Structures are given as structure tokens and as C-alpha cells.
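Sample pair:
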Amino acid sequence: MRQWLERWFGVSDIEELAPALEEWLESPLGSSLMRAEQEMLDTALSYLFGYHLMQLSPDRRAKLYGDSKINHCFGLHPLATDGKVYTAMSEFEHLPVADESIDVVLLHHILEFSKDPHRLLREASRVTTPHGYMVVIGFNPYSILGVYRQLARVFIRDPKVKSHAIRISRVTDWLRLLDFTPLKLQRGFFRLPVNNRFFLRHTEWFDKLGSPIMTPIGGFYMIIARKQIAPITPIKQNWSLGRAVPGFSVGKSASRFPESARVTAKK
């Protein structure tokens, strides 16, 4: 029974997920969602600085760091790519990156499609430098798009809809446990999840209206968090002597004979 539930509701392997998700992102609905995410992400990356930026995403073609001011930007993916965006093959849960070496870690729809999202987040935290940033983008389960995806997960055996419904509050709790402080939370894409180009183009005003009014039901969310680790100040050992113990000398050794006795003996 457990194996049947895992096959039906569990997250698909990356070999099945990546092609299906990339095909959906080329559809009118998927491309509209990507444009909204990219616009929000470009604004965020404009004020995030450092030496290295790493991108993790199930989409092998998404180059989300195009407007970043960081010189060295790269991505890692378990499947072979053309090398333009993802420079090496690696499992998301086992990154071949040194500890505390990446200034900005970008997680794009990777937690909900991971078999162990908490472990993946810990691995991403391991490679983030102290006071570095982590940017998490995911589907908002409390949105029209999120409800649509969960209903499709029940009735359709499609890799692109078999994902975890991770609440935003849970992601922020995980980040705090890993010594990250959430700095900013944004939501976007307030249009109905109708896969029709004409309808989506003529309902773009929903996004402008939804930003101040319907913020909690945005189709996706973006969390920017900073790794806060207090520096460790070594405590110098105090080697000063304490109070003298009766019967023991702590200064200049005293003579066994008094001074008057020594002078008399010399004469």
C-alpha cells in the first residue's frame, strides 16, 4: 500500500520530472509564470552582492541570474545539459561545493520537487557563506494555482504536478533553524491558471491589482533570507595566581634562620 501511494502521490525522479516540467514551462501558463518570477527576481538580485552565485532548479534551461552583478554565477543539475547555464552534474542533496563558499544560493522550485526538501535545504545552508543570502522560489499552496496543482495531483499521473505542498511558514521555520533570518517575502502571479495565451495576456492587470489587495493568494512566493552566524570570540585563559595557601610560599623563598642569627654566625 505504501509503495502504491508513493508511486501515485510521491515526487517523480528527476529523469521524469525535468522534461515534463520544461515542456509545461513552455506553455502559455508556464511561460507567464516564469516571466512574473523573473521580473521579481531581477529586482532582488540587483542588490545582492558577493563573489559566487549558485542556482539550483529542475529546469535545465532557466538562466535566472542574468541580471545579477555577481561575476561568477553557475548552476548544478543531476542531468546532462548544454553547459551554458549548468556547469556540472550533481545531485541536489549532495553538492560538490566547499563549506561556506557561496554568497548567494538560488533555489528555484526545487524544494517542492525534492524527495527530501529539508535535507536539500540543509545542504544549501552548508555551502552558504556567513552573512550570505538564500533566495527560495516556490509554488504557494494557498493560491488558486496551488489548489489547481494539488487537485491535478490526485487525478493526473503527471510528473510536473507531483510535488509537495510546502507552506511558506514551514519554509521560514526551516530557514530559522538553519540560522537564517528571513528578510523579505513576496508573492506574485494572481491570474487564473488557465492555459490560454489570449486569456492570460488580457488578464495581466490582475497582477497589478493583486499586489496590494490579493497578496496572500499569489501563485508563487519568493523568500530572501540571510545567514546570521555570531562570531566566536576566544576567551583568554587567566593564569594569574590566586590567594596564597597557608603553608606554601608564593613569593621569594624565606630563609630558615632569621637575619640576626646569620649575621652573628658570620662574625
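The domain at 2-227 is CATH 3.40.50.150 (Rossmann fold).
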